[in-house]
Amino acid sequence: MKFVMPGGTGQVGTVLKRALSAAGHDVVVLSRHPSGPGEVHWDGVSPGPWAAEIDGCDVVVNLAGRSVNCRYTPANLRQMTDSRIHSARVVGEAIAAADRPPRLWLQMSTATVYAHRFDAANDEVTGVIGGTEPDVPGYWGYSVGIAKAWEREQEVAGTPHTRKVALRAAMVMSPDRGGVFDVLLRLARLGLGGPVAGGAQYVSWIHDRDFVRAVEFLVARDDIEGPVNLAAPGPVPQCAFMRALRAASGIPAGLPATRWMAEIGAFVLRSDTELLLKSRRVVPGRLLEAGFAFDRPEWPQAADDLVRRLRGRAAG
């Protein structure tokens, strides 16, 4: 099959392209800065010659969007919003104009769309959409609003011959350099892998190979459309998440951090504390109901595998 992946040069795109190419599929990445074979230029805003790649392809996986790992300044929030909305809109226009439209459009979204909560897990049916929770910083609502607008662009696109799925993805854990797992492991090695602000907030995640398998599962299942949570069924509190990561990598202890310490650290790293403090307790209701079986459903085993693969690459 032919896959076209707008914005596929980041960590998630690298994971997906590597696996799909290894499986024998033709993968074309649309990038603002193409640098190798299989990459085609686009600007993420305007129609262009890149649209010919979508006409006749089998699956579009739109991963385009400015990284959320930044300070939530007004300028960065605007870039995060515009990059997602504009890219989804122009992808929809290209699919609508295609003589041979793809049969499936997988649109990246985020598990951050759900509310900050501890009492129960969020699935696609009973989950609570965030943005109006009490006792959280008001600006957290921006990321929820961005996610909702992102999904809305796909929903309203006039693509009657193309099935549409919004991937409400948790953090994709892979051993790739620069990915979220790599960053967390480096923090743990510096002694900073303890509980943050008590550590009760839930972390939702998905092992990279389960992410790929879930995408392949959704490609094969013509009966699934709409929002789908791509998260392991075992979200855990942040303190337990980091404890398992330290155990997998042989790190005996991690210093705890208060909320104000997290604020300082996020400022130094040019990131935002929402990524650390929001409780993302998300479970894959629709995937499990459809019969998808996770290879790595629990974090300790997933962390062991990721550390082993990381060490194997370093040794090689």
Counting copies of identical and different chains, the oligomeric state is single chain
Strand order of the largest sheet: 3-2-1-4-5-6-10
Count of distinct structural domains: 1
| CATH homology superfamily | NAD(P)-binding Rossmann-like Domain
Please tally the β strands and state the result.
Answer: 11
Annotation field: number of helices: 11
N-to-C series of helices and strands:
EHEEHEHEHEEHEEHEEHHHHH
> Under CATH, the topology is which?
Rossmann fold
CATH C-level name: Alpha Beta
Structure classification:
alpha/beta
Main β sheet profile = 7 strands, parallel
Q: What is the alpha-carbon Rg in Å?
A: 19 Å
CATH architectural designation = 3-Layer(aba) Sandwich
Unreliable runs: none
Average pLDDT value?
Answer: 91
The CA-CA distance between the termini, in Å, is 32 Å
Shape descriptor: globular
Brief descriptors of the model:
Epimerase, Epimerase_deHydtase, alpha/beta, 316 residues, 11 helices, NAD(P)-bd_dom_sf, Rossmann fold, globular
Structural commentary:
- The longest helix is centred in the N-terminal third of the chain and has 24 residues, at 74-97.
- The chain contains eleven helices and eleven strands.
- The model has no long low-confidence stretch (mean pLDDT 91).
- The strands form three sheets. A seven-stranded parallel β-sheet has the order 3-2-1-4-5-6-10, with helices on both faces. Strands 7-9 form a two-stranded parallel sheet.
- The protein has one domain: Rossmann fold (3-Layer(aba) Sandwich), CATH 3.40.50.
- The protein is of the alpha/beta class and 316 residues long.
- Residues 273-306 form the DUF1731 domain.
- Residues 7-222 form the NAD-dependent epimerase/dehydratase domain.
- This is Epimerase.
- It holds the Pfam family Epimerase.
